[in-house]
Amino acid sequence: MEIYIKKIFTVILSLFIFAYPCSLYSLELTPFNTQNQSPFIQIYGLPFPGDAHLTPPGGKDFKIIFDLANNCLDDYAGKERVVVDSETYRTTLVGRYGIARGIEFGVEIPYITHSSGFLDAFIENYHSAFGFPQGDRERAPRGRLLYQYQRNGINRIKVDSFDSGLGDIRLTTALQLYQKLNESPTALALRASLKLPTGETDQLHGSGSTDMAVWLTASDDHKLDSGHWTIFGAVGILGMSDGKILVDQQRNLVEFGTIGIGWSPLTWFGLKIQINGHTSFFKDSDLVELNGNSAQLTIGGTVAVFKQTTVDIGVTEDIIIKTSPDVVFHIAVQSHF
Q: Smallest Cα–Cα separation from 244: which of 281, 292, 204, 288?
């Protein structure tokens, strides 16, 4: 698995080395294409925020998105216990096509790997160097892979072996509700997605449910003396059929949202900060890991490496602790044609 991760980072690094400074163009600041990477949450159809400006008629938009999530928690509440100790690698291929003016269709194909990982020592040393608490890492063995939820002494979820496979495929569409194109463009889009139960549920590659999300996404750009500023956000609802994971505790409706801001002081480089949040996916639990609202903070930036290609790099932390991974490293490469 380390070889797999190194290959991905080598591809990204090569883009920087060989492409810069090729024909750089005015950068568009759009949301990070990431969501809660908890192994109990990423199996559902929680969508990426998406861009408020849709793909133009006949245009094609391709992305490869990679999220590396490191988890370490061991928590108790009454007769419940949850252990999430591992690394999850999620690689998503995304394609979108503008079929007409203001109408877009797309598909998202994820590939998910659960592994013992290799970042435990690095994160522990990082916490020690800056005086951060280690939390449950002080008790957990390094290199362990274990997803476990017990209730009344019975395992309701248990995954303890390396596995990888196809996740739940999503079909997407969007309608441009408003768009103003000038030096300070503004846009509003209505987006929707349908998640199909294509992933294996026993290994937490999928939920077994069919999910549909509908949301609004908006952006507002401003050119100032200090550079190009963009405010973006999204808000929506996710409906889910009964899946195969904790069927009697799963909720069928979740609300979610995103808010962020970006600043581009140069035409080829921008910084972004973003908050993603959602309500709980499960009920009838005293564990915040299951029955708690969640929020994540992503900080990073965007670099234009080709005329029509950008790279997003970000790091995500859990604002509401224990409801999402300790840290997620996010890389996305996007090209327009």
A: 204
